[in-house]
Protein backbone atom coordinates (compact mmCIF):
# COMPACT_ATOMS: atom_id res chain seq x y z
CA UNK A 1 0.00 0.00 0.00
CA UNK A 2 1.47 3.40 -0.96
CA UNK A 3 2.37 5.82 1.82
CA UNK A 4 0.42 9.07 1.74
CA UNK A 5 2.04 12.50 1.53
CA UNK A 6 0.83 13.26 5.08
CA UNK A 7 2.36 10.02 6.41
CA UNK A 8 5.70 10.75 4.74
CA UNK A 9 5.65 14.30 6.07
CA UNK A 10 4.96 13.05 9.60
CA UNK A 11 7.70 10.43 9.26
CA UNK A 12 10.17 13.19 8.37
CA UNK A 13 9.08 15.18 11.42
CA UNK A 14 9.37 12.15 13.73
CA UNK A 15 12.80 11.19 12.43
CA UNK A 16 14.01 14.78 12.65
CA UNK A 17 12.81 15.09 16.24
CA UNK A 18 14.77 12.00 17.26
CA UNK A 19 17.94 13.18 15.53
CA UNK A 20 17.65 16.84 16.53
CA UNK A 21 17.01 16.11 20.21
CA UNK A 22 20.41 14.39 20.20
CA UNK A 23 22.39 16.82 18.02
CA UNK A 24 20.64 20.19 17.94
CA UNK A 25 18.89 21.96 15.09
CA UNK A 26 21.80 23.62 13.29
CA UNK A 27 23.92 20.45 13.39
CA UNK A 28 21.39 18.37 11.47
CA UNK A 29 21.16 18.63 7.71
CA UNK A 30 18.08 17.96 5.65
CA UNK A 31 19.82 15.13 3.79
CA UNK A 32 20.49 13.30 7.07
CA UNK A 33 16.79 13.42 7.92
CA UNK A 34 15.76 12.31 4.42
CA UNK A 35 18.21 9.40 4.46
CA UNK A 36 17.14 8.23 7.92
CA UNK A 37 13.45 8.46 6.93
CA UNK A 38 14.07 6.64 3.64
CA UNK A 39 12.74 9.55 1.61
CA UNK A 40 14.43 10.32 -1.72
CA UNK A 41 17.01 13.07 -1.68
CA UNK A 42 15.72 16.22 -3.32
CA UNK A 43 12.08 15.68 -2.33
CA UNK A 44 12.24 17.71 0.88
CA UNK A 45 10.62 20.78 -0.68
CA UNK A 46 7.69 18.64 -1.77
CA UNK A 47 6.79 18.42 1.94
CA UNK A 48 8.10 21.74 3.37
CA UNK A 49 8.62 25.20 1.89
CA UNK A 50 11.89 25.78 3.78
CA UNK A 51 14.01 24.47 6.64
CA UNK A 52 12.33 27.13 8.80
CA UNK A 53 8.87 25.82 7.86
CA UNK A 54 10.13 22.31 8.58
CA UNK A 55 11.42 23.37 12.01
CA UNK A 56 8.16 25.11 12.80
CA UNK A 57 6.17 22.01 11.80
CA UNK A 58 8.49 19.82 13.89
CA UNK A 59 7.91 21.99 16.97
CA UNK A 60 4.13 22.00 16.40
CA UNK A 61 4.16 18.21 16.08
CA UNK A 62 6.24 17.92 19.26
CA UNK A 63 3.83 20.13 21.20
CA UNK A 64 0.79 18.24 19.85
CA UNK A 65 2.25 14.98 21.18
CA UNK A 66 3.20 16.64 24.47
CA UNK A 67 -0.32 18.06 24.90
CA UNK A 68 -1.83 14.63 24.26
CA UNK A 69 0.24 13.22 27.13
CA UNK A 70 -0.46 16.17 29.39
CA UNK A 71 -4.20 16.15 28.64
CA UNK A 72 -4.28 12.44 29.44
CA UNK A 73 -2.81 13.20 32.86
CA UNK A 74 -5.28 16.04 33.41
CA UNK A 75 -8.18 13.73 32.51
CA UNK A 76 -7.14 11.06 35.05
CA UNK A 77 -10.33 10.86 37.09
CA UNK A 78 -8.87 8.32 39.53
CA UNK A 79 -6.47 11.00 40.85
CA UNK A 80 -7.10 14.19 42.76
CA UNK A 81 -5.62 17.45 41.45
CA UNK A 82 -2.44 17.24 43.52
CA UNK A 83 -1.84 13.68 42.31
CA UNK A 84 -2.36 14.75 38.69
CA UNK A 85 0.13 17.58 39.11
CA UNK A 86 2.71 15.29 40.66
CA UNK A 87 2.12 12.67 37.97
CA UNK A 88 2.89 15.36 35.38
CA UNK A 89 6.09 16.39 37.18
CA UNK A 90 7.11 12.72 37.44
CA UNK A 91 6.55 12.38 33.69
CA UNK A 92 8.73 15.47 33.16
CA UNK A 93 11.38 14.02 35.49
CA UNK A 94 11.38 10.63 33.77
CA UNK A 95 11.63 12.20 30.31
CA UNK A 96 14.54 14.41 31.31
CA UNK A 97 16.40 11.78 33.34
CA UNK A 98 16.40 9.38 30.37
CA UNK A 99 19.60 8.59 28.45
CA UNK A 100 22.01 9.71 31.18
CA UNK A 101 20.00 12.92 31.69
CA UNK A 102 20.13 13.92 28.03
CA UNK A 103 16.32 13.98 28.00
CA UNK A 104 13.88 14.27 25.16
CA UNK A 105 12.44 17.74 25.53
CA UNK A 106 12.86 19.86 22.41
CA UNK A 107 12.24 23.04 24.42
CA UNK A 108 15.22 22.23 26.63
CA UNK A 109 17.37 21.14 23.69
CA UNK A 110 16.49 23.90 21.24
CA UNK A 111 15.07 26.85 23.19
CA UNK A 112 18.11 29.13 23.13
CA UNK A 113 19.34 27.89 19.75
CA UNK A 114 16.16 28.52 17.77
CA UNK A 115 15.38 31.82 19.49
CA UNK A 116 18.35 33.23 17.59
CA UNK A 117 17.97 31.23 14.36
CA UNK A 118 14.30 31.23 13.46
CA UNK A 119 11.58 33.69 14.37
CA UNK A 120 8.91 31.20 13.26
CA UNK A 121 10.28 28.43 15.49
CA UNK A 122 10.65 30.87 18.40
CA UNK A 123 7.02 31.99 18.06
CA UNK A 124 5.82 28.37 17.83
CA UNK A 125 7.85 27.44 20.90
CA UNK A 126 6.58 30.49 22.80
CA UNK A 127 2.97 29.50 22.00
CA UNK A 128 3.63 25.87 22.96
CA UNK A 129 5.20 26.72 26.29
CA UNK A 130 2.36 29.15 27.05
CA UNK A 131 -0.11 26.33 26.39
CA UNK A 132 1.82 24.12 28.82
CA UNK A 133 1.61 26.88 31.43
CA UNK A 134 -2.16 27.16 30.71
CA UNK A 135 -2.60 23.47 31.51
CA UNK A 136 -0.48 23.71 34.64
CA UNK A 137 -2.46 26.75 35.78
CA UNK A 138 -5.70 24.81 35.28
CA UNK A 139 -4.40 21.87 37.34
CA UNK A 140 -3.20 24.20 40.10
CA UNK A 141 -6.52 26.08 40.11
CA UNK A 142 -8.38 22.77 40.36
CA UNK A 143 -6.09 21.72 43.22
CA UNK A 144 -6.70 24.93 45.13
CA UNK A 145 -10.46 24.47 44.58
CA UNK A 146 -10.49 20.87 45.83
CA UNK A 147 -8.07 21.61 48.68
CA UNK A 148 -5.36 19.17 47.56
CA UNK A 149 -2.98 22.02 46.66
CA UNK A 150 -2.25 25.41 48.14
CA UNK A 151 -0.01 28.08 46.66
CA UNK A 152 1.42 31.34 47.94
CA UNK A 153 0.95 33.18 44.64
CA UNK A 154 -1.60 33.06 41.84
CA UNK A 155 -2.01 29.77 40.00
CA UNK A 156 -0.65 31.43 36.81
CA UNK A 157 2.51 32.79 38.44
CA UNK A 158 3.03 29.46 40.18
CA UNK A 159 2.56 27.52 36.94
CA UNK A 160 5.04 29.68 35.05
CA UNK A 161 7.59 29.64 37.88
CA UNK A 162 7.42 25.85 38.19
CA UNK A 163 7.80 25.35 34.45
CA UNK A 164 10.79 27.71 34.42
CA UNK A 165 12.27 25.81 37.38
CA UNK A 166 11.96 22.48 35.58
CA UNK A 167 13.43 23.81 32.33
CA UNK A 168 16.45 25.11 34.22
CA UNK A 169 16.78 21.88 36.18
CA UNK A 170 16.65 19.92 32.92
CA UNK A 171 19.48 21.96 31.45
CA UNK A 172 21.59 21.49 34.57
CA UNK A 173 20.83 17.74 34.60
CA UNK A 174 22.22 17.58 31.05
CA UNK A 175 25.30 19.60 32.01
CA UNK A 176 25.97 17.50 35.11
CA UNK A 177 24.83 14.19 33.57
CA UNK A 178 23.03 13.69 36.86
CA UNK A 179 19.39 13.72 37.98
CA UNK A 180 20.32 15.76 41.08
CA UNK A 181 18.93 19.05 39.66
CA UNK A 182 15.68 17.24 38.81
CA UNK A 183 15.55 15.81 42.34
CA UNK A 184 15.89 19.34 43.73
CA UNK A 185 13.18 20.58 41.35
CA UNK A 186 10.84 17.82 42.55
CA UNK A 187 11.47 18.68 46.20
CA UNK A 188 10.92 22.38 45.58
CA UNK A 189 7.78 21.68 43.52
CA UNK A 190 6.27 19.75 46.44
CA UNK A 191 7.07 22.67 48.75
CA UNK A 192 5.60 25.27 46.40
CA UNK A 193 2.39 23.25 45.96
CA UNK A 194 2.28 22.21 49.63
CA UNK A 195 1.79 18.55 48.71
Automatic annotation (TrEMBL):
Q: Which ranges does the entry annotate as DNA-binding region?
A: 29-48
The membrane spanning regions, by residue number, are none
Establish whether keyword Transmembrane helix is in the entry: no
User: Which Gene3D superfamilies does the UniProt record give?
Assistant: Tetracycline Repressor, domain 2
Which UniProt keyword terms apply here?
Answer: DNA-binding, Transcription, Transcription regulation
Q: Which domain of life is it from?
A: Bacteria
Segments forming domain HTH tetR-type: 6-66
Q: Read off the InterPro entries from this record.
A: Homeodomain-like_sf, HTH_TetR, Tet_transcr_reg_TetR-rel_C_sf, TetR_C
Q: Does the keyword Transcription apply?
A: yes
Q: What is this protein called?
A: TetR/AcrR family transcriptional regulator
Identify the species of origin. Answer: Actinacidiphila acididurans
